[in-house]
Specification:
The structure holds two protein chains of two kinds.
Chain A: H1 2-7, E1 17-28, E2 31-38, E3 52-57, E4 61-66, E5 77-82, H2 86-92, E6 99-106, E7 119-125, H3 133-141, E8 149-155, H4 164-171, E9 176-182, E10 192-193, E11 210-215, H5 218-230, E12 238-241, E13 257-258, E14 261-262, H6 263-266, E15 269-271, H7 272-279
Parallel strand pairs in A: 7-8, 7-11, 8-9, 9-10, 11-12
Antiparallel strand pairs in A: 1-2, 1-6, 2-5, 3-4, 3-6, 12-15, 13-14
Chain B: H1 2-10, H2 19-25, E1 29-34, E2 39-41, E3 49-55, E4 57-62, E5 70-76, E6 80-81, E7 95-98, E8 102-108, H3 109-118, H4 120-146
Antiparallel strand pairs in B: 1-8, 2-7, 3-6, 3-8, 4-5, 4-7
The chains are: A alpha/beta, B alpha+beta.
The complex binds flavin-adenine dinucleotide (FAD).
Flavin-adenine dinucleotide is lined by residues 52, 63-66, 79-82, 84-89, 127, 130-131, 243-246, 268 of chain A.
């Protein structure tokens, strides 16, 4: 690994930095938490909530993964990875001590600065909670800088619910409402059952003083934006994250071009108003 | 009677309904309470009630033979439970049971149907409100069927 460190030139944004796996653990049957630290014991990388890294898995390739850890803890990078194919499979199969190349952080991030002094509404579906978790940390670490925090989270089934213990802990914070629902439940699940939009009727919202941040499958986000508008949120206070496939992450290759936008450098977080016509298109 | 009428008027389902109509509805109403874990109705049973949930949580379940029941929806405070009383053959399509201690106003289905036949304005008002909820549940069901979180 030390040899790798010397090979990798630190100043080139296209070259990965050497990191090692410090922790890897199962969150749900197909989703894993992964903690990386710089191999050379350096101070690590600062990031903004919503930014992502390009993770280079030796022998497999490179893939974009959102940073899902606490932005105030820059010593390590925490990710939540759902194993869906070759690269993500290889990533979650790494063991403690294995090396991983990291480029980034990249991307625009969530508008946490603009949201100061206002209520924050977070609506997440499935793995979409991962890129939003840093926003939750940010708000809870700086509680008095923000108004109410409302988290509406939908998962497929009870066993797919991410960060279970944290969800319960967040709900105990003052001025914080956490509502979780699953599309289908078993008899042992005591929470809500129904799609994420059905949670709105229980949410205590103050639309005029709120900023909403959404991440999940695109169909879900379309339904949620409609619901937010019905509840009186203006479009320019709604932000969505578009997680399309990408390669270079710096706007060179055009692989993640989404209409006139590049997801990697203009996003993945966009103001809803800007991305709306594209969200409603069938094919891109 | 007075408190029952107030509960009806304050329930979100009847928001904005003229007091004349709540006055008509109160004759069909009673207060009910279900202990945690008790069955409220069973698939195929006669649908004689329309519930306005005041507190608690109810699970709607679908039973597949030889499988454990699947909860397809939960309903809580401020929501309604059951519209099968409105349409023939007046039979429940799901099972419902109380996940928590649940308090509700039960409106007798036959009584409601009779009032609606006698007073079509009330009937239309009720139908509009139920239709709105049906539309929202249909939308939610479509989203559920799309199984948007599945790996694809
Ligand atoms: C900015 C950004 C942030 C991301 N953050 C995360 C994250 O925090 N955690 C995480 O688990 N994943 C995240 N992803 C998605 C992740 O990069 C892909 O799942 C991964 O690249 C798939 O590679 P693979 O070889 O494992 O699967 P492949 O074999 O390439 O694909 C397997 C299946 O997954 C689908 N797929 C691939 N990429 C995506 C995607 N981006 N969105 C939806 N479906 C896809 C394919 O269509 C295919 O059906 C992010 C993507 C982007 C662009």
């Amino acid at each position: 690994m030390a040899a790798l460190a010397t090979i990798l030139e630190k100043t080139d944004p296209m070259l990965p930095q050497p990191y090692v796996v410090r922790q890897v653990g199962k969150e749900t049957p197909d989703t894993f938490g992964l903690t990386l630290e710089p191999e050379d014991g350096a101070s690590g990388t600062a990031f903004r909530p919503g930014q992502f890294s390009m993770l280079w898995v030796f022998g497999v390739g490179e893939l974009p993964i959102s940073i899902s850890g606490d932005p105030s803890d820059s010593g390590r990078l925490v990710y939540t990875v759902r194993s869906v194919g070759k690269a993500t499979n290889a990533l979650v199969s790494r063991e403690v001590g294995d090396g991983i190349g990291v480029r980034g952080p990249y991307g625009t991030g969530w508008p946490v600065e603009e949201a100061r002094g206002r209520d924050v509404i977070i609506v997440a579906g499935g793995i979409g909670l991962a890129p939003l978790r840093p926003v939750i940390y940010e708000v809870l670490n700086n509680r008095k800088d923000y108004g109410r925090l409302v988290l509406l989270y939908g998962a497929r089934s009870p066993r797919d619910v991410l960060y279970r213990k944290e969800l319960a802990a967040w709900a105990r914070h003052r001025e914080t409402q956490v509502l979780t629902t699953v599309d289908y439940g078993g008899l042992s699940w005591k929470g809500h059952v129904g799609v994420v939009t059905t949670l709105f009727k229980y949410a205590r919202l103050q639309p005029a003083r709120s900023v909403a941040m959404l991440c999940g499958p695109e169909i879900m986000m379309r339904f949620v934006t409609r619901e937010l508008e019905v509840h009186g949120l203006s479009r320019d206070n709604i932000y969505v994250s578009m997680e399309r496939n990408m390669k270079c992450a710096v706007g060179f290759c055009g692989h993640c071009q989404y209409g006139p936008h590049f997801i990697c450098k203009d996003g993945p977080v966009f103001p809803y108003e800007r991305i709306r016509p594209l969200l409603e298109k069938y094919e891109l | 009677m007075e408190t029952l009428e107030r509960f009806i008027a304050e329930h979100p389902f009847f928001a904005g309904l003229e007091s004349y109509y709540t006055g008509l509805l109160v004759g069909c109403a009673s207060n009910v309470r279900f202990e945690k874990g008790t069955s409220i109705f069973k698939e195929g049973g006669d649908a004689n009630e329309f519930y306005l949930i005041r507190a608690g949580k109810v699970a709607l379940e679908l039973i597949e033979p030889h499988r454990r029941p699947i909860v397809i929806s939960t309903l809580s405070e401020g929501e309604i439970l059951g519209w099968s009383w409105l349409l023939p053959p007046y039979q429940w399509k799901f099972n419902a049971h109380a996940l928590e201690e649940t308090r509700a106003i039960a409106l007798d289905g036959k009584c409601l149907r009779t009032k609606c036949e006698q007073n079509h304005d009330l009937g239309y008002e009720l139908l509009k409100r139920v239709a709105q909820i049906m539309e929202r549940r249909l939308e939610a069901t479509s989203l559920q069927l799309l199984d948007v979180y599945a790996a694809r």
